[in-house]
Design a protein that fits this description.
3-stranded antiparallel β-sheet; 7-stranded mixed β-sheet; alpha/beta; Rossmann fold; homodimer; 8 helices; globular; Arc Repressor Mutant, subunit A; 2 domains; DNA-binding
Amino acid sequence: MIQPRPRTIPEATVARLAVYLRVLSGLADGGRTTVSSGELASAAGVNPAGLRKDLSHLGSCGVRGVGYEVRALRERIARVLGAEQSRACVLVGIGNLGTALADYAGFGSRGFRFVGLFDAAPAQVGQEIGGLTVQPMTELEATVTAHEASIGVIATPAEVAQQVCDRLTAAGVRSILNFAPVTLTAPVGVDVRPVDLSVELQVLAFLGQQRSARAAEVTA
Amino acid sequence: MIQPRPRTIPEATVARLAVYLRVLSGLADGGRTTVSSGELASAAGVNPAGLRKDLSHLGSCGVRGVGYEVRALRERIARVLGAEQSRACVLVGIGNLGTALADYAGFGSRGFRFVGLFDAAPAQVGQEIGGLTVQPMTELEATVTAHEASIGVIATPAEVAQQVCDRLTAAGVRSILNFAPVTLTAPVGVDVRPVDLSVELQVLAFLGQQRSARAAEVTA
DNA sequence: GCGACTTTGTTCCTGCGTTCACAAGCGGTT
DNA sequence: AACCGCTTGTGAACGCAGGAACAAAGTCGC
């Protein structure tokens, strides 16, 4: 028995689906009911053919000659991404970045719900951010198990990130988003996704430098 | 005349080079003088063969039978990435995220130097963060031209991100790092690199969900 | 009611990134 | 001085993502 819709959606496609979801929400709020692949692709900054291929991974959803129904497509993508269910997340490290993450309203509408904020510094503990009170690190494991949190976000200094990672995985967290500038090691079965802001900046700078070099070469 | 070292380094390689640079700095601080590709790859979380291929893009730098000299390799990568020169950056949007970015010391050691912080809210203007004073938006163009800033970072709400992008590009900024959850459009010749935190979280959640589904299938 | 136009969904193809495997080269040892 | 083991650097194959072109299908106009 073969599944009509293969389970494996490429990671690059998943990232773009999340972007389409955001654009579709904006269109729906604007009162649009249908949208063509070309228009949606332009709003998302991708190629129209690629967009149609991405959408084909979740089955036919458009109407030929017309386009896609905005609300239906949004719901379909949300279902595939699992954004309709509420996922419990914990956030460790309430510095500036952690505060920004805890405060960010965009997560809530995407199916993410912070159930615990933690920091080692006593000065941060007790503070209220985005409707939650910052807890001491000792409460970490209890909160994770109580809410069955499967996602952890690390926004601590680099020095303690690995310890935090170890405690999170030991408590049952299976997916970790890591903002600390270190490479974390985790047991198999645990996904760690690094987001390094200075790496992003360096890639950007390099591309700009490369572009300038090419331009100078042409004029020479 | 053919360049012995082709100018075009794949973008994925550039991102990893930035990670290697970080790891090498840590090793150098720890007093290590040489390191093998296997060890470095493990510390960076990549495949040893891939690491060697990445390094091959910048010419032979290792010693067979021994490994790589830590300091020499670090300097070589830094030179290729342009991290040895100081690049002027401006940051627009001093909320929690913007404050975190302005405060982050990691940028300085990577060759980035903020020369201007800007916010539209009068309450933020005048505040001092990381040695700089937050300026009103009216000063944006003058600061960009005075320092010849080529990199702009947008950490504003989504609604004003496109306007800010337009003003930055008009003032001469050629590379933009965008943290606002919108797809920006910019003239050709300007690189915009989006960093969407909720997209990252959604991809992570989807991978976790997919993994769980596979596990359930196997046990069934 | 029929034809033409528009837009989707798919298929093919090209190029890139990644991985594996081996030859080349250097240091340590006898 | 010669050999052996270890490590780098590179060549080839594999798999994957991206882009273009085409067929299917549905709607609008006549």
